Task: inverse folding
C-alpha cells in the first residue's frame, strides 16, 4: 500500500479530504503534489467566496447605495475555473460513471 502524503496545513478540512481521496487513487510525484495543492487552494478560495455570497447575498449595495453584484461571485467563479484548469494539468484518468457520451439512458 502506498503512503498518502500529508496534506498541507493551510488547506481546509474539506480540501484535505479531497487531497487524501486523490492521493489514494493516484501516485503523484512532487511536482504533481504542488499542482494539486494549488488546485485545492483555489477550491478553498471558491468555498470562502461561496460562504460570503450565502451571508451577504448575490446583490450588495455599494457606498452610494447602488445595488451591484457581490464581488464574491466573481471570486468564486474565477477560483473554480482556476481549480478546474489546474486539475486538468494533472491529467488524471477518471472513469466515466456510465458507458458512452452524454446522459445515461432512462433519465
Result:
Amino acid at each position: 500500500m502506498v503512503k498518502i502524503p500529508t496534506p498541507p496545513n493551510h488547506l481546509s478540512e474539506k480540501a484535505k479530504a479531497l487531497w487524501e481521496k486523490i492521493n489514494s487513487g493516484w501516485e503523484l510525484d512532487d511536482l504533481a503534489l504542488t499542482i494539486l495543492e494549488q488546485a485545492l487552494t483555489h477550491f478553498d478560495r471558491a468555498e470562502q467566496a461561496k460562504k460570503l455570497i450565502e451571508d451577504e447575498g448575490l446583490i450588495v449595495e455599494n457606498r452610494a447605495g447602488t445595488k451591484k453584484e457581490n464581488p464574491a461571485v466573481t471570486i468564486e467563479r474565477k477560483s473554480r475555473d482556476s481549480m478546474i484548469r489546474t486539475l486538468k494539468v494533472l491529467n488524471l484518468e477518471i472513469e466515466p460513471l456510465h458507458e458512452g457520451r452524454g446522459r445515461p439512458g432512462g433519465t
The beta strands are 59-61, 67-69. The chain has a mean pLDDT of 90. The chain has one domain: 13-90. The CA atoms of residues 35 and 103 lie 31 Å apart.
